[in-house]
Amino acid sequence: MRDERLYRYYAGAAPVSVEELAVRFATLESARSPKRDERWFNWVVRLHDGTPVGRMQATLRSDHALIGYDIFVPFWRNGYAREAAQAMLDYLARSWRVSLVRAVVDVENVASVRLLESLGFERTWTGASDDLPGRTDHVYEKRLAGP
Question: What is the pTM of this model?
């Protein structure tokens, strides 16, 4: 998680220490936002041998979710993001009855745009980024089938 290429398209920076990363993860472990109005889901994407290759996340609000993901640089372009994202979408639909999923992606993040489109997401908006001044984002949405 220290490779700067992971942070090119969204606000945030690589952790400066293992201790800082532990604090970040401790906040996420609560599985709830500080106001308790959102559920936070976070998963480590692992190979069958246990090697971590990335992470997936979903913020659940009522019946819709906002998703995000990172695949670590050495594992890019191997299909791990697609497989993990599909598993996450299936879980959200089946276990939480999520009907709508959104993702925000920088317009220059071609790999992420292709991933979302391959999963059946449709672009619904393009405009100024909320968290990176001077950048432009797309919003993608996908309706999920019921359980």
Answer: 0.89
pLDDT in tens, 11-36: 777 888 888 878 777 777 767 777 88
**Residue count of the chain:** 147
- How many CB atoms are closer than 10 A to CB 84? 20
| Residue-wise pLDDT tens digits, 78-91 | 999 999 999 999 99
If DSSP codes are grouped into helix, strand and coil, which group holds residue 55? strand
Distance CA 100, CA 89 (A): 10
Is the CB of residue 123 less than 8 Å from the CB of residue 138?
Answer: yes
Q: How many domains does the chain have?
A: 1
Q: Give the tokens for residue 128.
A: 């100024």
Contact 80, 54 (CB under 8 A): yes
What is the extent of the structural domain holding 75? Answer: 4-143
